[in-house]
């Protein structure tokens, strides 16, 4: 039996329950002025929502948010941008480079959550509140330095509560660990409404804004940007970024229509096979795909199709620095491997998609029609995939492949 001082069944104030069909004002999303950002959000910023954006250092998180903040401010929305990492003068320099020096943004350099919330309560709630970053914030009611688990959790809770009560859309920038996970407590991702990842290689100009969690829209939607001298430019047709554009096909190259949320993106899968002398240990190198899945696919090709990769080095690359997670990439990877092994180019204007089982079967995948229509739009006229899974798309011929053995016969014969 609990003692009276630990009994929480009394002493509080009653809460009010409401039916689901209670009439109320519908929440209207606010456009950020960046169509690719809005796409990843599911249509724009929801009032009172809390968004957590993570990404590698220098990838462009602050640039993207400053561009969005500037456009919202120029459209008449009140925007507060609080930087805990840079001085106000440094943020102004970036804004000038982005052509946003005249944007009416309320800018401050501060790290005390108490000071930030005290100031916000003296003014009308802004349309957008950006905190860059949550790991630099601290609360004087919590022990520990900024960035510790307790500080990050406590500061985020107070800022999220303000957003819910005031209706301001809150964006928290989050540091990431070397493994790519957002630093701090995992509960932070549960507390917010939207978790976004800003990805890309600093050696490549493209950036992908990916939605990992979204209470107000579809998950796995992406927005694509290109880093230019004057900031991030939207890429309306990302497929053009990841295709080589060569006129004649080369051995070991296959085009795969990846699906990111509802958006199809055509990418090029490249394979290289190097025969070794006996006794040498063959190497397996993968860029942009799961190395474990490559090992499985090589084993299936050897076991079910009689191909020999054990005495060869295998190199696999997804062009443009793109990272594939779609299981439908199996068939494109297999086609590139077989093409490289046989030193025979794949048919020109062809795409390949399908999941491969351990039995060597090519299994159906989601939305084949969407993939084919994107390929047709970019000039491809042939599709190869699972038998009986693709809807007919006028203008593109589809050939069903029931197994990897049929794929090998199709390429080698």
From TrEMBL:
Annotated region Lon-protease-like: where? 313-413
Query: Domain named RecA family profile: which ranges?
Result: 26-176
Q: Where does ATP bind?
A: 55-62
Q: Does the keyword Hydrolase apply?
A: yes
Q: Mind listing the UniProt keywords for this protein, alphabetically?
A: ATP-binding, DNA damage, DNA repair, DNA-binding, Hydrolase, Metal-binding, Nucleotide-binding, Stress response, Zinc, Zinc-finger
A Gene Ontology annotation in the biological process aspect, one of them, is: recombinational repair
Q: Which PROSITE patterns match?
A: RECA_2 (PS50162)
The GO terms describing molecular function are: ATP binding; ATP-dependent DNA damage sensor activity; damaged DNA binding; hydrolase activity; zinc ion binding
A family per Pfam: AAA_25
Q: Write down any Gene Ontology CC term.
A: cytosol
Q: Where is this motif: RadA KNRFG motif?
A: 213-217
Identify the domain of life: Bacteria
Task: Name the protein family.
Answer: Belongs to the RecA family. RadA subfamily.
* Record note on domains: The middle region has homology to RecA with ATPase motifs including the RadA KNRFG motif, while the C-terminus is homologous to Lon protease.
This chain's function reads:
DNA-dependent ATPase involved in processing of recombination intermediates, plays a role in repairing DNA breaks. Stimulates the branch migration of RecA-mediated strand transfer reactions, allowing the 3' invading strand to extend heteroduplex DNA faster. Binds ssDNA in the presence of ADP but not other nucleotides, has ATPase activity that is stimulated by ssDNA and various branched DNA structures, but inhibited by SSB. Does not have RecA's homology-searching function.
Q: What is this protein called?
A: DNA repair protein RadA
Q: Which gene encodes it?
A: radA
């Amino acid at each position: 039996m609990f003692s009276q001082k630990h009994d929480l069944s009394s002493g509080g104030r009653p809460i009010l329950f409401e039916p689901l069909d209670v009439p109320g004002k519908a929440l209207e999303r606010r456009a950020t002025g960046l169509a690719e950002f809005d796409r990843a959000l599911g249509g724009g910023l929801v009032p009172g929502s809390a968004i957590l954006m993570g990404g590698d250092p220098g990838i462009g998180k602050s640039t993207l948010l400053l561009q969005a903040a500037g456009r919202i401010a120029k459209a008449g929305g009140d925007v507060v941008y609080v930087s805990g990492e840079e001085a106000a003068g440094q943020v102004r320099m970036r804004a000038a480079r982005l052509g946003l020096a005249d944007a009416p943004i309320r800018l401050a350099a501060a790290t005390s959550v108490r000071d930030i919330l005290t100031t916000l309560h003296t003014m009308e709630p802004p349309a957008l509140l950006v905190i860059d970053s949550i790991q630099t914030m601290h609360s004087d009611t919590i022990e520990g330095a900024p960035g510790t688990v307790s500080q990050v959790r406590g500061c985020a809770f107070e800022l999220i509560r303000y957003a819910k009560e005031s209706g301001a859309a809150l964006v928290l920038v989050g540091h990431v660990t070397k493994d790519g996970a957002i630093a701090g407590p995992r509960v932070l991702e549960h507390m917010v409404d939207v978790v976004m990842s800003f990805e890309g290689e600093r050696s490549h100009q493209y950036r992908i804004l990916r939605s990992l969690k979204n209470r107000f829209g579809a998950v796995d939607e992406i927005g694509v940007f290109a880093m230019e001298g004057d900031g991030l430019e939207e890429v309306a047709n990302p497929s053009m970024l990841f295709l080589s554009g060569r006129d004649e096909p080369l051995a070991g190259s296959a085009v795969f229509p990846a699906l990111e949320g509802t958006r199809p993106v055509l990418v090029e899968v490249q394979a290289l096979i190097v025969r070794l002398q006996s006794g040498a240990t063959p190497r397996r190198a993968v860029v942009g795909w799961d190395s474990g899945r490559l090992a499985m696919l090589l084993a299936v090709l050897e076991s079910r199709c009689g191909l020999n990769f054990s005495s060869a080095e295998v190199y696999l690359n997804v062009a443009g620095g793109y990272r594939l997670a779609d299981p439908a990439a199996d068939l494109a990877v297999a086609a590139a491997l077989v093409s490289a092994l046989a030193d025979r180019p794949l048919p020109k204007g062809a795409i390949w998609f399908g999941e491969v089982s351990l039995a060597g079967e090519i299994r159906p995948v989601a939305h084949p029609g969407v993939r084919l229509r994107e390929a047709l739009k970019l000039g491809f006229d042939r599709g190869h995939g699972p038998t009986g899974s693709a809807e007919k798309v006028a203008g593109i011929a589809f050939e069903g492949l029931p197994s990897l053995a049929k794929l090998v016969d199709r390429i080698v014969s």
